[in-house]
Task: inverse folding
DNA sequence: AGGCCGCCTTGACCTCGGTCAAGTGCCTGC
DNA sequence: GCAGGCACTTGACCGAGGTCAAGGCGGCCT
């Protein structure tokens, strides 16, 4: 919560390394210039909060680099990690478009550079270029899919299956698969945060890891994970019912 | 699954009783005429399936009347009821826009009349009238909110709280609140389906109902529910942690 | 160095909700 | 009328995961 040490930086949308991955890639140069003018760029350190649940929504955040966790809390103070956002992802477009306050919070998990594109800018771009709206729509559609999938999982699958699923998802971005089906994974998350992602307590996370070790499904040392046979993880998924 | 007895009917978008509630209300008369031509209207009986998970998505469904349940199933055959859709709601816009197959299924819970607006029609309308896209976007934003809320609830709240929450949601549409805080509710759902909505088994639903009766929180007879003090339901929500 | 703090692990215990099996009441079809 | 089916309820049992309390381990501070 050290809101003080966020450093303003001056970046350029045209040279942004993540440009190709953003929704903004459908914009013309003129339109992109608008974004470039209307944005504020900032650096965040791990633990820094980009916005809080309940904060007023002033525009849309675009991740240039780093890793962001989207968290949501309930009345009782239980917190879960809804998803991870990566360079090129746009955050907060949803609350912005719906005209709501933010309904979840965003926290840097790694040192990150994030641009805030002001509300006025976004609105005028949406008018100028309807394709942009459709891009956001597709994005929302995907997020919705993921969320519904997660609802289903969290009520029907046991913890082992959910954890296996998490590892398989992380594999795509953080894993290296070698030719004979073995997998090496460098986790971007603490155990606590992994627990928060599948909606369990840290203690249960520890126990689940241990049980994977005991069953020789995966081996953990710090944030490095080695899985000898990926199929074992996939098997875990179906293990919800022991057919 | 009696796909045979779906009756085709001939309805008119201009006189549709639900018109004002749909996303389509932003259309001009000309555009609406397009929808009217390009639609196929059908009647469904309770239990009839409008579309299945995995079905190809040919367009967008619009509910004229009735009640639809959106279900999703996992690999092990566990099914949950993600949400209810009412007259004026549009279904399947998401898979359609994302270009995917349907990723959940829709089943009539009451006799319903539903129009299918063909993909071509929708696409050309989106081009003609960008506002329509923004309406869908807002809709998606709300669905996403609800879904994320549900993820949180299903991992953090105990069954009693989730059930209380469900009753409070149903209240808005199916309840009558009298002056002194008492609530009468006519449930649109079977116990099984209520169980599916909060991700539990029918047996647990029964037990939860009984425990509400024993605590004098609510009284059930068939699908009629009487709640003497709504505050009791609200209290249940926070009861996740006994502060 | 020593001490502190946060992350992680472990064990003992308990509870909520799932599972299995049986029983009831209602509705439909013969 | 009776039989079968389905939604719902109930009881007995059990196990996954939460809770509480106690350490271990490493990083960072003075």
Result:
């Amino acid at each position: 919560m050290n809101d003080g040490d966020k450093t303003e930086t001056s970046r350029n949308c045209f040279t942004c390394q993540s440009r190709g991955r953003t929704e903004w890639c459908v914009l013309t140069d003129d339109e992109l210039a608008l974004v470039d003018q209307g944005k504020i760029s900032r650096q965040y350190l791990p633990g820094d909060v980009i916005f809080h649940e309940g904060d007023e929504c002033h525009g849309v955040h675009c991740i240039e680099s780093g890793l962001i966790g989207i968290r949501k809390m309930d009345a009782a103070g239980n917190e879960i990690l809804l998803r991870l956002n990566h360079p090129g992802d746009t955050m907060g477009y949803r609350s912005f478009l719906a005209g709501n306050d933010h309904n979840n919070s965003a926290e840097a998990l790694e040192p990150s550079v994030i641009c805030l594109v002001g509300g006025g800018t976004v609105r005028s771009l949406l008018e100028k270029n309807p394709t942009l709206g459709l891009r956001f729509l597709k994005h929302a559609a995907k997020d919705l899919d993921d969320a519904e999938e997660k609802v289903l999982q969290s009520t029907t699958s046991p913890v082992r299956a959910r954890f296996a699923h998490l590892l398989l998802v992380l594999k795509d971005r953080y894993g290296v698969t070698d030719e004979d089906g073995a997998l090496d994974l460098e986790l971007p998350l603490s155990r606590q945060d992994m627990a928060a992602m599948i909606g369990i307590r840290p203690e249960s996370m520890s126990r689940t890891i241990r049980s994977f070790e005991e069953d020789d499904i995966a081996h953990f040392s710090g944030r490095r994970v080695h899985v000898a046979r990926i199929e074992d993880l996939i098997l875990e998924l179906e293990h919800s019912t022991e057919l």
Chain B touches chain A through 48 residues (CB under 8 Å). Chain B is about 40% helix and 25% strand.
